[in-house]
C-alpha cells in the first residue's frame, strides 16, 4: 500500500510564480494535501545569511505544521530570475549557471539543517523556469 503523505510546500512570494506553483501541485494531485509557506527567495530566503532573521520563523512554522498536520514531506520550489539570488550575489551579473549554484547550495544547506531537527522528513527540491517547467535536484 502506498504511504499517504502530507507535504509542506516552501515557495517564493514572486507573483509571477503563484499560479505556476499551484498548477504544478495540482498536476501532482496534491490539492488538500499540503500546507504552504511562502517567503521571498524560498530556500534561499530561509538559508542564506543575508536573510538570517527569517530562518527560525520557517523552522518554527515547519515544526508546527508537522505537529498539527502530520507533515512528512517538504517540497521546495525555487525559481529562475530570483530576486533573492540577485541580492546574495551582491547584485553582480547573474547568469543561469551562477543562479543555479545559488539555488543548489540553498537546497543542500536546508537539507543539512533540517535533517538534524526533523530526521523523518522526506525532501524534494525543484527549480522552476519562467514558463513553469521544473527541474528536480537530488541533493
List keywords for this structure.
5 strands, globular, 139 residues, 5-stranded mixed sheet
Which strand order spans the largest sheet, edge to edge or round the barrel? 2-1-3-4-5
Summarize the main sheet.
5 strands, mixed
Give the averaged pLDDT, no decimals: 94
* Content of β-strand: 15-25%
Describe the overall structure:
This protein has 139 residues and is of the alpha/beta class. 40% of the residues lie in helices and 20% in strands. The protein has a 5-stranded mixed sheet, covered by helices on one side. Strand 4 (122-128) and strand 5 (134-137) form a beta hairpin. The chain is globular.
Task: Summarize, please.
The protein has 139 residues and is an alpha/beta fold. The protein is built from four helices and five strands, in the order βαβαβααββ. The chain is globular.
Q: Topology, please?
A:
Layout (H helix, E strand, L loop, with lengths): L6 E5 L6 H10 L6 E5 L13 H18 L3 E7 L3 H6 L7 H22 L4 E7 L5 E4 L2
Parallel strand pairs: 1-2, 1-3, 3-4
Antiparallel strand pairs: 4-5
Amino acid at each position: 500500500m502506498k504511504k499517504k503523505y502530507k507535504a509542506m510546500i516552501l515557495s517564493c512570494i514572486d507573483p509571477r510564480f503563484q499560479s505556476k506553483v499551484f498548477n504544478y501541485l495540482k498536476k501532482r494531485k496534491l490539492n488538500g494535501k499540503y500546507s504552504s509557506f511562502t517567503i521571498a527567495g524560498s530556500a534561499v530566503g530561509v538559508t542564506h545569511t543575508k536573510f538570517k532573521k527569517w530562518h527560525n520563523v520557517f523552522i518554527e512554522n515547519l515544526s508546527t505544521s508537522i505537529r498539527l498536520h502530520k507533515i512528512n514531506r517538504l517540497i521546495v520550489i525555487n525559481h529562475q530570475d530570483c530576486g533573492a539570488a540577485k541580492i546574495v550575489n551582491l547584485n553582480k551579473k547573474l547568469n543561469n549557471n551562477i543562479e543555479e549554484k545559488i539555488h543548489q547550495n540553498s537546497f543542500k544547506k536546508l537539507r543539512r539543517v533540517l535533517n538534524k531537527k526533523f530526521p523523518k522528513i522526506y525532501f524534494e527540491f525543484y527549480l522552476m523556469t519562467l514558463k513553469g517547467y521544473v527541474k528536480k535536484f537530488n541533493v
